Each structure stands twice: as C-alpha cells, then as structure tokens.
Amino acid sequence: MTRNTQGRPGTGELRKGYTTGACATAATAACAEALLTGHFPDPVTISLPRGASVAFSLAESSIEDNSASAGIIKDAGDDPDVTHGALIRVTLRRGALGKGITFYAGEGVGTVTRPGLALSPGEAAINPVPREMMTNAVSEIAAHHGAQADFEITVSVPGGEKLAEKTLNGRLGIIGGLSILGTTGIVVPYSCSAWVHAIHRGIDVARAGGETHLVAATGRTSELAAQKHCGASETALIEMGDFAGGVLKYLRDHPVPRLTLAGGFAKISKLAAGHMDLHSARSQVDMAALKSDLEALGAGADLLAEAEKSIAAGAVFELAQAAGLPLADRIAAQARDAACEVLVPSDGQRDKDKIAVDVLVFDRCGRLIGAAVAP
C-alpha cells in the first residue's frame, strides 16, 4: 500500500491520497532501477510535481532480460475514487537506441478516439502531467546509471475497463478503460477540481467534434429530459452537476453558439439567485425571493401566507402550480439572466462570441415545468 501520512487519524481530518499518475510514476521508477541494477527498490521514492517526496510500497514485481514489471495499489485516501484499491501496473521495456520514451495503453487503460483532449486520437489515455512525471523519473535514473533513456512504458489497470464505466470516459471518447490522471500527484478528498476538469474536457471534446449546441444538466433525470427536448447527441451532453460556474466560466472563453441549462426547480432557483455552486452545503434556496416572485405574479394574501410557511422550494412551486402561476418560467428567466451575466467575455464586449442561452426546468419525472428560451 502507499505510505500516506497526509491525514492524521483521530483528528477528523480527511486523509489525502495519490493519483493514478503518481502510482504509475512510482512503478515506472522501480522498473527502471530494476532494469539497470537487477534489483527493485521497495519502497520506491518519487518526487511529485510540487516538489514533495513520497514513498510507495510495491504490490508486485518481476524482471526479465529486457523488461521489468511493477505494481502499486492505489490509495485514494478518504476520497470516494473509483480507482481506490486498484492495481496500477507498469511494464518497462528497453526501446530502440535513440527512440526515447514511448507510452502504451495496457489492460484497463483507455485509448483516445476523439479530438479535443490534450492527447491526439489513437494515443494511450495517459495524461500529459503523468507522462512528464514518468519521463522525468526514468530519465533521472538512467542518467544516474550512465544509460540512455530509451524505454517503452506500458501502463495497465487490471479491471480498469469495468471501472471506467463509472466515469465520463465513454462520453469523452476514451474507450477500453481508464485514464491515468493527476496534475499534482495528490488526491484531495471530495475535491471539486476533478469534476470541473471533466466538465472542461467534455466541452473541449464537444467543440472539437463540431457540436454547436451543448446541454448541461444538474442530474441524470434532467439530462435525459433535456436531451430528448433538444434532440442533442451524446457528445453534446455536459454532466454539470452542481458546478454551473464551471460550465459558464469555461464557455465564456471557449464559446459555442447555443447552451441549454437544465435542472430541477430548486437547483435552478439557486442559479436564478446568482449561485454558481448549486450544492446544498454551499448554497441555499432564497425562500424570501420565491415569495416575492409569487407576489410579483399576482399571488393573493392566502397563497403568500402558505408560501411563508413553506420550508422547501418544491412546496412553493406546487402552491404556484395549483394557482396557475408560472413561477417556474419566471425562475428560468432569472436563471438565464444570471447565466448570461457570467458568459460576458472578459473584455466586456457582450456581442462578441455571444452565446444563446436557454434554461429548462423539469420535475422529478422529467416533465418540463418551466422554460426561458433565447430570442
């Protein structure tokens, strides 16, 4: 297992872990030492991108004449990472003299099939920073032993193809398994960065694939309903979750002609109030504002009194619906205004690369209950 002292037991602090890229780098370093000395270091120590040194224990190792293989069990700390406990295996082979370092996808590691990512179609889904980490590690070891760094690096994750079904890889056009990821080498528990990164890569792939109308939804029910409503392809779907800001701020600098935002009444109510993070722990529905919206729509005193007693956005919507008041449409229009404000380019020119924005509100059964459509 990885030696991980990032979290302190008994303190309530969440324990950090290590990325697949860090694990692959450690396995690569161990293989390089074995090929050049005949012995595996265990534990093996590597440097992370920000300079920290970390030691990893080997779960397996083997050596032949021209190749070595080593595996490390990924420890994601307290993060609910789908690859926690997975074996990250590297096989290092001597390559042709002067060829340098080349990367290959082994069992359970995907292959890029669509443009728009940092890697070209046909490449192993080993991201740029892990490639750099592995290249640096093997180059330093080779130089230390007076050898040239001409190696073939194959990364495998047994069972990775099944694990990849729980990720967004399929939507991004990465087939056959997982991606080897990480920009710092560290996994921060419950970090938003991985989700936002996936949002950005989804937008990149959609744009590169020629999609002109993206659909970003807060959840699966609204996504399916919006996809049907808009006739959108799978590539055009962006799994936004709670990160409306992650979608809008990235599109501000990487625009498409049209964007549809979709979600339930409560989430869209938060967006209408200007919240860019829609998670319940980080933003709340403004119940007083909903009551004011009802009043603006002509609600009577009795209805407003009932709304005053409501503790959930859904209850206020049901009151409005029973009274025939288009509250969901009003909220959708406010959410559209909030989104458009974020989408203003950094130079302030509102007409430059202007994105047409639609907002759709769905109930829990996927029925459209409110909408605001761009002119």
Protein model, in words:
This protein has 375 residues and is an alpha/beta fold. It has twelve helices and 16 strands. Residues 1-11 have low confidence and may be disordered. It folds into two domains: 17-187, CbiD-like (2-Layer Sandwich); 193-372, Beta-carbonic Anhydrase, Chain A (3-Layer(aba) Sandwich), CATH 3.40.1050. The chain is elongated and about 85 Å long.
Which descriptors would you attach to this protein?
alpha/beta, Beta-carbonic Anhydrase, Chain A, 2 domains, elongated, 5-stranded mixed β-sheet, 375 residues, CbiD-like
The backbone outline, from C-alpha atoms, is elongated
Distance between the amino and carboxyl termini = 57 Å
Taking all Cα atoms into account, the compactness measure Rg is 25 Å
Output the structural class. Answer: alpha/beta
H/E series:
EHEEEEEEEHEHHEEHEHEHEHHHHHEE
- Provide the domain count: 2
Strand content: 15-25%
Name given to the CATH architecture of the largest domain: 3-Layer(aba) Sandwich
- Outline the biggest β-sheet: 5 strands, mixed
Mean pLDDT across the residues is 92
CATH topology of the largest domain: Beta-carbonic Anhydrase, Chain A
Which percent range fits the helix content?
25-40%
Count of beta strands: 16
Low-confidence stretches: 1-11
What is the CATH C-level name of the largest domain?
Alpha Beta
Annotate the secondary structure layout.
Layout: E1 17-18, H1 20-37, E2 44-47, E3 53-56, E4 60-63, E5 67-73, E6 87-94, E7 101-105, E8 111-112, H2 128-144, E9 151-156, H3 160-163, H4 169-172, E10 174-175, E11 186-187, H5 193-208, E12 213-217, H6 220-230, E13 237-239, H7 244-253, E14 258-263, H8 265-272, H9 287-296, H10 301-309, H11 313-322, H12 327-342, E15 356-362, E16 368-372
Parallel strand pairs: 7-9, 12-13, 12-14, 14-15
Antiparallel strand pairs: 1-11, 2-3, 4-5, 5-6, 6-9, 8-10, 15-16
Helix pairs in contact: 1-2, 5-7, 8-12, 9-10
